[in-house]
Batch of 2 targets.
Target 1
Amino acid sequence: MNFIFRTSYWLVLLLFFNSCESIPFFKDSFNSKPTVFATLPQIEGASDKRTRYEFSGKEIIIASDHPLASQAGMEVWKQGGNVVDVFAAASFAISVLRPHSTGLFGGGFAVVHLPAKGKWAYDFRERSPKKGVASFYLKEDGTVIPEKTLKGPYSAGVPGTVQGILQIQKQHGKLPLSSILAPALRYARVGFSVYGDLAFAITKTWQQMNPAMQKVFGIDNRAIREGELLVQEDFAKTLERIMENAEKEFSDGETVQLVSRYYSEYQEFITLEDFKNYQVKVSDPLVSSVWGHTILSMPPPSSGVHLVTMMHLYSEMQNRDTFPKGDVGEVIRITEAMRVAFRDRAELGGDPLYTNIPVSKLLSQAYAKEETNEIERKVVSGSWPPSQEEPKKPESYNTTHISILDKDGNAVSTTQSVNGIFGAVQMVPGTGLILNNTMDDFAVAPGVPNLYGLVGSKANSIEPGKTPLSSMSPSILLDSTGKTKIVIGAPGGSQIPTSIFNTLYRYLIQKRDLYESVSYPRIHHQFRPDQIFLDPEIKDSYPQSELPFYQVQYIRHRAKVFAVTREGDRLIGVSDPKGEGVPLGF
Ligand code: DON
């Protein structure tokens, strides 16, 4: 057994290196960076990692959270694909490579900008199944049944990833599905070496996995370890069926039949009808002028609108000389902008088909002025209301983002997720697919914090067919001449909008370069709990003693930013040095 395992492991390494040879830029970047098979560095440090996490080119750049996902994108680009083909190939590949973060039983958003053709916002996020109603998660006395939205078969929403990727690719891509799916299929069937972050996720969730899942993520009845081979044969078969049947596979194909059989033991919580009724939602991106650029972001139920409110509020405060100067002033402006944006999110956020979200108002100058007046009163009078502290729920490492930009300004910004680590930690037997636990993104009851400590209102309550509120905020920024300048997004739960804010702040306002902007220690506030979270490296610049009106926690910001920018005739990509990915390109 051991011998077979080792032999196949080295065979895979050999195959992998051979396949890299055929992709010159991958080979170059690969050679200059630590290999994916080595234990990857975690977060500390920064500048010495630049060679690994930054990459520049002239034609196209993709930044993702796994070298092989970036490679999948470049593989189809070399075959004559466009940015949408790159998006589709990299998305399927990352589902195989980061199954603890995202997958075909998950959901996501994509903002697509093709200057010669148009711009779109695609919502392929999970929807509450027909049986998904709030009372399903509550005891008779109205209190929440612990963990029911978090783990197990009832925590999953109806997935949209496959329908989303296929619809976008069908509308704008050039290559056949066989080419798009080839890299993902190869990674699932031939396997790849388990890296540190994935090994951690497997060990952490091992006890909760159902038998089908333990079979895939175990060797000899124990969790697979770092450096060992992960083969996902059932997943490969599902990919083959998608290759053959395209979107029909997820409306009435064998895969959804297997899902329906699985749910026959769980009150038929998700049914074939739920899959048949699933619709990808296509709309215009949310557009706003901010910081000398035009931002195209994802509309609600994403948090794009709150990200933009944050940016407007910051500008308004910066224009007033009543705010303190220096580091303290900076922290106040950023924190108070975040507090308002997350308050709005908690009070108003939800599926726009079920609740009214006053997007134009939240993006208006009048609103930024009005809210800044309130903050100014507090700052000038020095009468800060006492902090309202609530327990902080732990964050987890999952979800993923891919940013792609080519020399003609064509861009895709996509964030995809199964929500928590390995979602519901249940595999549908025979499919290789792991259920999401995105029902937890609803507010199960007003004021009850979710996995990310976020609270919500009735606007985000559970109702059949509804889409849960999301922090995912994929965005694209155009410069003042209308050319695509930045493609950006992040995983990281509630820290997603603030990581994008921090990066854009360092890049556009402070004029740091992209790598520094992504790696720079971050400032985070999410309304509840009423605390500022600062990366430990900036403790000396922002000691608690100078911020007596705030409760400060020096805790590492978890979100990982993936961004590509255009600077002159060069494209520069950065995959967050906290992660496992690399940007690649030509
Ligand atoms: O859509 C959301 O807001 C969450 N499902 C995102 C989860 C996430 O980013 C987890 N990452 N650490």
Note: Residues 1-45 have pLDDT under 50 and may be disordered.
Target 2
Amino acid sequence: MPNQRSTPRFNPRGGDRRPQRPLGASARPSSPLWYGLAFLAVLGIAQMYFLTPAGRSIPYSEFKSLLKSGQVVEASIGDQQIRGTLKQDAGADGKQSRQFTTTRVEDPKLTEELDAKGVKYTGEVVNRWLPDVLGWIIPLLFLVGIWGFFFRRMSGAEGGVMSFARSRAKIYADDEVKVRFADVAGVDEAKDELKEIVEFLQNPKKYTNLGGRIPKGVLLVGPPGTGKTLLARAVAGEAHVPFFSLSGSEFVEMFVGVGAARIRDLFQQAEAKAPCIVFIDELDALGKVRVQSPLGSHEEREQTLNQLLAEMDGFDSRKGVIIMGATNRPEVLDPALLRPGRFDRQVLVDKPDVKGREEILRIHARDVKIAPDVDLKVVAARTAGFAGADLANLVNEAALLAARSDQTSVGMKDFESAIDRLIAGLEKKRVMSTKERKIVAYHESGHAIVATVLPGLDPVHKISIVQRGFGALGYTMQLPLEDRYLMTRGDLYGQLAVLLGGRTAEEIALGEISTGAQNDLQRATDIARAMVTEFGMSDALGAINYDGNKRPRFLDIPMPQERGLYGEETAQLIDAEIKRILTDAHDKARDILTTNRDKLEIVTRRLLEIEVMEGDELRTLLGVSKPSTTPAEDRIPLPPTSP
Ligand code: ADP
Ligand code: MG
Ligand code: ZN
């Protein structure tokens, strides 16, 4: 499944946002701006009125002929215009037309002509005062005013650009969250883990009086749309505490220093309102691994992240503030965020199985009129791979379809077409096809059966064919009964058989192999190689370590492939031994699965039906007894070898 980045600041689902009361600066009315614009309009009109010359505007030639015919009584000569008065009877329509203006033309003889006709004339010093004031001084003052207005908005009362952080008014405290755990379904394990947080928030004293360690940060991890945001809100709703939420992506486009200031601000406000929850959604947008960049282009995000780390460290969780985070890309998070005292608790919010999907559908169907023929169980069975948000969307889509065809309730037919439509849309998000699901079911059943039938292996805890966000199409989880410090050669052989069991089941049941076993093969090959070159478990090569201390055993970090010091011949021998070990394991897996061919069918069919199978049910299907919790043999823990 491709990693899809959540759209910053735009929530396409949007269903979980409620009207919230801003805590920071309240939104200011924009009216000053409107007053300003109105004023500008008045100014324009005034300017037109005052500066438009009075009277009729005539061409200079007409003025000259009027002058010649003795019609002009008075003239006032400015440097650009000549204004004047005509004789009473000159115009046709009375008083108005006695006034005239004309644009002045360079005419040195004008005064002589005026003298000759006996016209009273004056020179005019044009009064620049009014036009100047109207023309540019007032607009200039106005612009300065607007600039000042925005500047004040930006810098805020306490001064400094810092309170820009506040004025974005995005720090919300939702004092009364309406979401409850009952509104979230299909994520029971996550809910169970969060119940403890709720209890603590409801009664922090009870815990702190005993000196208990309270979790500081809880990170919700899971694919998009599985209800992480919803769960965080439900925790606040259940505990009846204020809910501060911020999204990591909101910080991305800010000026340097602003994000850090907002984090500081957020924690200050939260402290004042404790007990409460601070929720940072899309933590990955903010908490990506810090990198040394010569351009310093990530400075803002890093400052913000550093501030967050500092605040989390300096924060006394006994005050009753729980910091929650959510991400669908935990792999990109800066490891510093996951250290003890920060987001040290991680809660997996996975895609729902069939039962979970039915429950989620039920929740969302509450708001919709459903026809009696609708069986949500069937809908749930047909929507493998859908996350909670997809299911919410499905119910809505079905309701829209019903409305379009003027029905009074939403029928099964509407659900069917909505599913078809959504699956087509989800194709991009890689929802498994029926055929793929079958392959994955056989594959996982193969792992699980080999792990259960072979003696001495860790019992299977859970098998799942619910597609996970992080690439895996299914998984088989084994849980050890006790801590292991040593693995025998037999244990490792068994593990190899389990790893190859998936692929072997595909071969046996479908006569075809898929790419799904790539990771299994890689791990199996790694183990086989280590058996030969590090643990001296190959009889052909003997008790010898060929690869030196290349592997820091306690770090799960892939090391650069560095070959030990051995010749070509030994290399060939090593390869041959690895191959032999893997072939043995493959044969063993094939043996087990062929003898249990009918069981493979049964488990696969059941798995396709319920998608997630507990270990106990698997053992019942296979007719194997429950694993005992007492260790089969005594294992003496060895001191860890130095890496
Ligand atoms: P995420 O934060 O994991 O991406 P959201 O919490 O934003 O997912 O989920 C979006 C919407 O989808 C929710 O508001 C809710 O309506 C629906 N939804 C998602 N998961 C669930 C669930 N487990 N139970 C009920 N509704 C869900
Ligand atoms: Mg979310
Ligand atoms: Zn596998």
Note: The pocket of magnesium ion (ligand 2) is lined by residues 228-229, 281, 326 (CB under 6 Å).
